[in-house]
Specification:
- The protein is α+β, with helices and mostly antiparallel strands.
- Among the domains are: about 110 residues, no CATH class; about 110 residues, no CATH class.
- The strands form seven sheets. Strands 4, 5, 8, 9, 10 and 11 form a six-stranded antiparallel β-sheet that branches. Strands 3-2-12 form a three-stranded antiparallel β-sheet.
- Strand 2 and strand 3 form a beta hairpin.
- It is flat.
- The chain starts with 6 loop residues before the first helix and ends with a helix.
Amino acid sequence: MAKRKDKIADKVKHMYTLVKNHNRAQWEYINQKGFDFAHDNQLTEKERIALEEQGMPTFTINRIMPVVEMLNFYATANKPRWQAIGVEGSDSDVAAVFSDIADYVWDLSNGSGLYANCINDAVTKSVGYLMVTVDQNSDEGMGDVIIKQPEPFDVFVDPKSRDMLFKDAAFVMIRKVLPKVHLQQLFPEMKAKIKRANSSYDTEDNYSEKSMGPMQKDFGYKDIDSQEAVDPDKGERDELIEFFEVYEKIKVPYVNVFYVKPPDEKQMKQIQQQVEVAIKEMEQELQVELAEKERMLGEALQSGQIIQERYELELTKAQKEMESKIQEAYMQLSSKLQAESSIIENISVTEKEFIALSKEPDFAKHIQDSVKFYKNRVRQCCVAGDVTLYEKVLPDNITEYPIVPFHFKWTGTPYPISAVSPLIGKQREINKAHQLMVHNASLGSSLRWMHEEGSIDPDYWEKYASSPGALLPVRSGATPPTPVQPAPLSNAFFSICQEGKQDMEYLAGIYSAMMGDAGAQHETYRGMLAVDEYGTRRIKQWMTNALEPALKQLGTSVMQFTQAIYSANKRFNIVQPDALQGEKQVEINIPIFNDMGEAIQKSMDYQEAKFDVRIIAGSTMPINRWAYLEELKQLLQFGVVDDIAVLAETDLKNKEQIIQRKSLYSQLQGQIQQMEASLQDKEGTIETLSRQLVQAGIKTEVLKASKEVDKRKEQLKGDLQREYLDTEAEQKLLKGQEKNNSKLQQDRLKNAVDQTIKDLQTMNKK
């Protein structure tokens, strides 16, 4: 029986064939060369053999690597920081925790290391990639959002894309060649499919500058060789298989449904209470009317105007009318209040979901309007060989590709330019000049001889000609050999080396002073700061125009994936090495229970919140700490910041303890000021009572009270002064005891003053 054809796998393989075109091959060749040159792989095999045949040195002077390292440093000095802005006011609290969740994902994924490698790829290979995905096995099966770093040469992008972040690309593809056993470890649930997949694939081209046959290896990762594929379970070679991970943007029909949302259970209880109160009042009024009618009918019956049967008929009719009015009023009032409490809401659902909802009578009757539209979704499929492992559409809140490019120099196409490519010509020039200078120096130290054929023993002369004091035999009658002096080396070679170095610095925007060259440093501190500021302008431009938009896109992907994955209650432990507390906890999706113990709502509902993500500009740039501290000192003088803010930015040991003690001291000073203010208020009360006593003519009691007041005032002032001095001395050694002592003394002071006031009030009454 013939094997069933896999249409998805065939489509993916055809897409790969089309995208692997001449432009892609040329781009890989150029950037592999740049990567090789940056990692000291600068000579082709042909060049090496030619130099050796001429007796010339084959070393190289790598001027590119320092440039690469400095660009990496400036771009990765600090980890990126994101912030979220709530679309609605109710989302502000939830949006505030996004920065902490992004930090959690970053640290969980070793984001700093991945980002450093990504920037190195951007500098040497023109583009680096970071991608957001989900580790389904993390957190005991609950799953965690993580960041990965694909190899740039493994990523294939729709050639028609003209957006710097590939937002307009029809697809983004990752292609790898892996051992089957490795792929089975990645997808254990797909083990049977992988086993029966066809492992044949096209041999990958080698775009190295040093292509020299099967023994030649690139520095950069491409595909592994069949000799390197090992099955650890069997201890033998394993089959290699082609693996594709493809992301496509699709348009999915959605319907924006506007519907009436009836009152909830709580609102219905309130409505019921309102209706019952109103109906009770109405019933009381109608009972009065019924009694009045019953009296009138009774009078008519007694006077003979109506007979007994008419009396009973009219009375029964009136009772039924009253009950009917009450029932009708109940229905009308209840419907009115429910309508007033109902609101019009909207919900976006897929067209299929809308059709299903429309068939439900309880929901269909509340539908007011509906608007159809199309929403961007991302479809993912994974193919191994000729077998599709799975295909799925990512959650509806994920609208952009999770693979984010970090370009060095975007060209308007998926084929950017690296920082190394413009430097290759100058690097070759420097290598050639140094090789010639060393070769010339070697010739000058080892003389060559021109001699008459047969006049000397060549082997003897070759062995001893350079030995000090050697006696060199010459055939009798022959002309002695003549030394051949090398031509003097032109000074142009030294100029070429020096100018080549300067040209490379100019092309890269990285100068000697920025790399710590003492000879290139400015004499003054402000001069060095100016050199640092001006020298980094081109780097800042690159980071502002290329890296920060990519980081913003990465943050958006992290937000979309975390909102899709973190739907349950979860607590994050966030490590903050730069913060005073060192660690903080963040909790989302906190359940709120009713009296029955049922979860009816969520606090900090992360999944339903809506917010925009922004990258904090310059968050990855290095900070000149001395310049920053100098700026803080000036702000301290102007009163813009306090000394604690300045201290927090220093590298002083035990700064956390110092800041805590200073904070405690400030609190104690505030308490003492409050005590002094309270004492002044009490003194004013005492003076007022004294005046009242004088006005009453009780002079003796006034004198006694005044003496007692003065005595107590002096005693209280002395106690307060001693307490202030004791507090100021003890705060340097104690942390918690000062607060208790201060509170105790405050209570004593308050009790003493209150007692004085009571005594004076008692005397006033007497």
